[in-house]
Design brief:
The chain is mainly alpha-helical. The chain contains four helices and two strands. It has a domain of about 80 residues. The chain has a two-stranded antiparallel ribbon with strand order 1-2.
C-alpha cells in the first residue's frame, strides 16, 4: 500500500486539524484537534533531552578513553553499531563486534562509577 493510497484510506489530510469535508464527503473518522504549540514544545523538549543524553555519553567516553570525541563520532562508533540480541529464558544478551565491545565496556565502566544525587 503506497503513501498516497494510505492517505485516501484513512480519510484525512496530512495536517492535524479536523476536517468537516474531505473530497466532497464527510470523513468517517474525525481526528481530535491538536494544540500545535504544545506539540512543538514537546518535540523541542524531547530533542533537547536527547542532545543532553548524547552529550553526557560523549563526555563519559572522553573521560573513559582519554581521547577527544565529537557527537558524530560517539553516535557512529558507539550508538550505531551492528549488534545481535540473544534471548534465553529471562536473560537478554547483546552481542557486539570486538571493536565496539571495547568502547561499550569503557562506557559502562564509566557509567558504573556515576552516582546520581538523591532528590531532597
Amino acid at each position: 500500500m503506497g503513501w498516497r493510497h494510505s492517505r485516501r484510506f484513512l480519510g484525512s489530510a496530512a495536517c492535524a486539524r479536523p476536517k468537516s469535508h474531505y473530497r466532497g464527503k464527510e470523513p468517517t473518522r474525525r481526528s481530535p484537534s491538536v494544540d500545535a504549540f504544545a506539540r512543538n514544545e514537546v518535540i523541542l523538549l524531547l530533542n533537547a533531552l536527547a542532545y543532553n543524553v548524547a552529550h553526557a555519553g560523549r563526555v563519559f567516553m572522553e573521560t573513559a578513553t582519554g581521547e577527544g570525541w565529537s557527537l558524530r563520532r560517539f553516535r557512529d562508533r558507539v550508538l550505531r553499531v551492528a549488534a545481535r540480541v540473544v534471548l534465553h529464558g529471562r536473560r537478554a544478551t547483546l552481542v557486539l563486534g570486538k571493536e565496539s565491545a571495547k568502547l561499550w565496556h569503557a562506557l559502562w565502566s564509566r557509567l558504573g562509577a556515576f552516582h546520581a544525587v538523591p532528590a531532597p
